[in-house]
Write a structure and sequence with these properties.
By secondary structure, the chain is of the alpha+beta class. 44% of the residues lie in helices and 25% in strands. The protein has four domains: 117 residues, Beta-Lactamase (2-Layer Sandwich), CATH 3.30.450; 112 residues, Beta-Lactamase, CATH 3.30.450.20; 172 residues, Reverse transcriptase/Diguanylate cyclase domain (Alpha-Beta Plaits, 2-Layer Sandwich), CATH 3.30.70; 238 residues, TIM Barrel (Alpha-Beta Barrel). The N and C termini lie far apart (140 Å). The relative contact order is 0.05. Bound molecules: ligand C2E and calcium ion (2 copies).
Length: 676
């Protein structure tokens, strides 16, 4: 066509020559040669260069490059002739532009065809969307896309690229993709997409912009679609595993901590309460031992199921391991609401379970703690719920109880008893107090009972009832007992050196200590190293300790007696209260329990029994000490019954060694208290 234009100019216009030169656009100059077309007249062929007049008409199009029409004439160009030639040049420019556009389109098409052949065989889904239109319509999808999504190309071409997400719009990855589309950048995200049949698949999506030839405009986006459902489901399983109890599918401690933290954050925000219930099945061990491991596991699963059914979906039920469960109730209005949940749970467990065709009844002990009253953090709440739960166990089980601050001391015993107590021994947090024993006849202090105290750096003074049973369980009672023994001997020595009146000190022995093989030897060594006579010690035992294994008990008691020590039977009246022990064993003293003494002046039976016990003991040559004497009325009665010694708040509470030494030195007597 261009050639023809040049020829026409020469042949019809009578010009010497006409030529067209076209340069390609600047960006792609490298690839294309300059195009030059020349036509020249034969008639003017012989004319010399000097005779010709040149006319250059150029045009320029930013995207199409430059062009130039060059006409040579032997005669000068008239003004209107120039205008006419300019129009021709412009026309040539226009048609050139059209030609280029057409061939470019052709090229794109054939390149796309090539590209799509590659894409057809791709394993990954590919989707090309146009980004020049508002809704990013799909212009191409490959067969893998069809396979993954279940849609055919025909069904999706023209739809917005978003359609795979459906209305599952609350996905973090969507923001990433949207932002990339907006700023025309590459991006990567994992999205929940939906197949034609509605099933979900996880799409690991890569999108990248496709720019036009000039590189300045993004015309398309290519999306690579990877169905990573299998990998994600594996990851989810792993995650589930990390956060759930394998047996019951309930949350494990990990997830529980998260959930409590969430519930607390929420509660802080809207001023509500959070309840934590810690639940421990009663006597589960018996069931496990009786039925075996796997029926036991089935039972735990059923319990888990009932717990889940007793709470709302938004609450958390977790298993801490063994037969311990935790329920977290968020958005509570009041502690009463938590009590309602606790009762509901207990009721649901009270329905029989079927194990191997038999009806089984299961009960649980539940401790309750409420944020913020019982703790600011999950850890504290769990710990306090545990303390409360333990109280339920102690008081008959199958019930729930709210935590109360008085229970706090129990918390350390049970949760970190061993560590704490071990540390207490190392760091000198333990101390021995003395409670005077007063002779009723002369009213003088004749001895004292050594009673251990734990001065905890944070909590303060902890009473032995709160840690002795646990020290026994953990075996720490042995070093603890050693400590008391050495301390008592050392104090006796000090008072002896100070010239105080001689006293006999009573030491409580626990069952475990009593069965210790080297008990007598260790007492001997403590006595020797302090330079103390064995006769200055008394050992207190309870009936339950001596009633089993009579022979060994007798052996041990004789060893103690051989040291010169005396033996007291403690807490008499609480256990078997069998006077036969008094005959059988070499017992020197009997301590009537506080619970007995308490009502002695009100309850005629108690009084009669106390009287009989004292009389009987005396017949056997045994002295009697009354424990827990708090009032003058109690004292008067006991004196009438012929009781030998008194121990109780009426005379003195247990006091530190220094204070006791002071009492001894001052010769404090019962009459001097002004009550006798
Ligand atoms: P226990 O042997 O029956 O000790 C007497 C308890 O009665 C002491 O409690 C004492 O403080 C308390 N008591 C004394 N007089 C009165 C009174 O008038 N009214 C009332 N309400 N209570 C009174 P404590 O010191 O709390 O000791 C509790 C128990 O801990 C002891 O009971 C004893 O079984 C055990 N225990 C204390 N120290 C030791 C020890 O060093 N080793 C061992 N194995 N056990 C110890
Ligand atoms: Ca005692
Ligand atoms: Ca006692």
């Amino acid at each position: 066509m261009l050639q023809q234009q040049c020829r026409l100019l020469v042949e019809t216009g009578g010009y010497r020559s006409a030529s067209l030169s076209v340069s390609p656009s600047t960006s792609s100059r490298r690839n294309k040669s300059r195009l030059k077309l020349v036509a020249s007249s034969h008639e003017h062929r012989n004319a010399s260069e000097d005779e010709t007049i040149h006319l250059k008409l150029s045009w320029k199009d930013s995207s199409q490059g430059r062009g130039e029409l060059h006409v040579e004439s032997l005669t000068p160009f008239a003004a209107d002739e120039r205008v006419a030639l300019q129009i021709i040049a412009d026309n040539i420019g226009d048609s050139l532009q059209q030609i280029r556009q057409a061939s470019a389109n052709h090229l794109l098409e054939s390149r796309l065809r090539q590209l799509s052949r590659a894409l057809e065989s791709s394993h990954n889904g590919v989707m090309i969307t146009s980004s020049t239109q508002l809704d990013h319509p799909i212009v191409y999808v490959n067969p893998a896309f069809e396979r993954i999504t279940g849609y055919t190309a025909d069904e999706v071409i023209g739809l917005s690229g978003r359609f795979l997400v459906r209305d599952d719009l609350n996905q973090r990855g969507l923001g990433t993709i949207r932002e990339a589309l907006r700023s025309r950048r590459e991006a990567h995200a994992i999205l929940r997409n939906y197949r034609k049949d509605g099933s979900l698949f996880w799409n690991e999506l890569f999108i990248s912009p496709v720019r036009d030839e000039g590189g300045s405009m993004t015309t398309h986006f290519v999306s690579i679609i990877n169905d990573v459902s299998e990998r994600i489901s594996y990851e989810q399983q792993l995650e589930f595993h990390a956060n759930h109890d394998a047996l019951t599918g309930l949350a494990n401690r990990n997830l529980l901590n998260d959930r409590i933290a969430q519930a607390l954050a929420q509660a802080r925000a809207d001023g509500l309460l959070v309840g934590v219930l810690l639940l421990d099945l009663d006597r589960f061990k018996l069931i496990n031992d009786g039925f075996g491991h796997s029926p036991g596991n089935e039972l735990l699963k059923s319990v888990a199921h009932r717990l889940n059914q007793s709470v709302r979906d938004t609450d958390t039920v977790a298993r801490l391991g063994g037969d311990e469960f935790v329920v977290v109730i968020g958005r509570l209005q009041s502690a009463d609401d938590l009590a309602i949940v606790a009762s509901k749970i207990l009721r649901s467990l009270n329905q029989p379970f079927i194990m191997e065709g038999k009806e089984i009844f299961v009960t649980a002990s539940v401790g309750a703690a409420v944020y913020p009253r019982d703790g600011e953090h999950g850890e504290t709440l769990l710990r306090n719920a545990d303390v409360a739960m333990y109280r339920v166990k102690e008081h008959g089980r199958n019930n729930y109880r709210f935590y109360a601050p008085e229970m706090t001391h129990m918390a350390i015993d049970r949760l970190d008893m061993e560590g704490n107590l071990r540390r207490a021994l190392e760091r000198d947090e333990l101390e021995v107090f003395y409670q005077p024993l007063v002779d009723l006849e002369g009213g003088r202090i004749v001895g004292a009972e050594a009673l251990i105290r734990w001065r905890h750096p944070r909590i303060g003074m902890i009473q032995p009832a709160e840690f002795i049973p646990l020290a026994e369980d953990t075996g720490l009672i042995i070093p603890l007992g050693q400590f008391v023994l050495r301390r008592v001997c050392a104090d006796l020595n000090e008072w002896q050196q100070a010239g105080l009146p001689p006293v006999k000190l009573s030491i409580n022995l626990s069952a475990r200590q009593f069965r210790q093989d080297d008990l007598a030897a260790s007492i001997r060594s403590a006595l020797d190293s302090a330079g103390i006579e064995g006769s200055r010690l008394a050992f207190e035992l309870t009936e339950s300790m001596v009633m089993h294994d009579v022979e060994n008990t007798l052996l041990t008691l004789r060893e103690l007696k051989n040291l010169g020590a005396t033996i007291s039977l403690d807490d008499f009246g609480t256990g078997y209260s069998s006077l036969s022990y008094l005959k059988r064993f070499p017992i020197d003293t009997l301590k009537i329990d506080r619970s007995f003494v308490r009502d002695i002046h009100q309850d005629k039976d108690d009084a009669a029994i106390a009287h009989a016990v004292i009389a009987m003991a005396h017949k056997l040559g045994i002295r009697v000490i009354a424990e827990g004497v708090e009032t003058q009325a109690q004292l008067d009665l006991l004196r009438n019954f012929g009781c030998d010694e008194l121990q109780g708040y009426l005379f003195s509470r247990p006091v530190p060694a220094g204070e006791f030494a002071l009492m001894l030195g001052q010769g404090k007597t019962l009459s001097a208290t002004g009550q006798s």
